[in-house]
Amino acid sequence: MWGRLEHALDFLLETAINIEALSSPRRETAAALGRKLRLLREIYSTCPLLSALKNEANAVIDRISNQSGDRHLVMHSTWVGFEDGPPPCIVMLSVKNRPSGSHYQELKATFAHMGMVAGAFHGGRIAVLRLLEKTDLAGGPKWEEARAQALQEADRLLPMPL
Questions:
Q1: Is 149 a residue whose pLDDT tops 80?
Q2: Cα-based distances in Å from 38 to 1, 58, 65, 130, 158
Q3: What does the alpha-carbon distance between residue 144 and residue 66 come to, in Å, rounded to a whole number?
Q4: pTM
Q5: Interval 33-68: pLDDT, tens
């Protein structure tokens, strides 16, 4: 589920970067989650075409930031087994690398907790997709024109054989 959320977040970031680039120099995209969120917050605060969506964007960004702990649990843990309980749980081993060395921690997540995490990720993805739709519309006619030109250029450079 997190992969789907972050994939939608990447589309949102690229769309915001491209809309902002209609009136200012194009920014480089970011790979790390924290940098993506900071970049989005800055773009929605400073880009005239997107500033009307600033509060909604900040709410989505805050929601994703609040889920980053669960993201770490899901993305950076290895499932090592199951325990019957009570309650039944998934046993995971989490590794955190710090300057002082690697730290290993055994985590036991109940199925209910993992279900809540998956639901939260799904809800976060829906919020990102709704903001993406509004962002796309906020770009206006200039954005539609720029997108059409980009598609024409792509077709010219990469002709598809029949």
A1: no
A2: 22, 10, 10, 19, 34
A3: 33
A4: 0.73
A5: 889 999 999 999 999 989 999 999 999 999 888 877
Q: Contact 90/112 with Cβ under 8 angstroms?
A: no
The one-letter amino acid code at 86 reads P
Report the 10 Å Cβ neighbour count for 37.
Answer: 19
Report d(CA 41, CA 147) in Å as an integer: 23
Nearest to 107, CA basis, from 128, 77, 131: 77
pLDDT of residue 42: 95
The token duo for 52 is 């009307």
Q: Largest Cα–Cα distance of the chain, in whole Å?
A: 62
Strand order, beta sheet including 89-98: 77-83, 89-98, 101-110
Q: Please provide residue 109's backbone torsions phi and psi, each rounded to the nearest 5 degrees.
A: -105, 130
Task: For the chain, give every domain's residue range.
Answer: 2-76+114-157
Tell me which amino acid residue 136 is.
D
Q: Which two tokens stand for residue 24?
A: 């200012």
Q: Nearest to residue 15, comparing CAs of 4, 5, 26?
A: 26
C-alpha 118, offset from chain centre: 15
Which residue is it, tokens 């194009």?
26
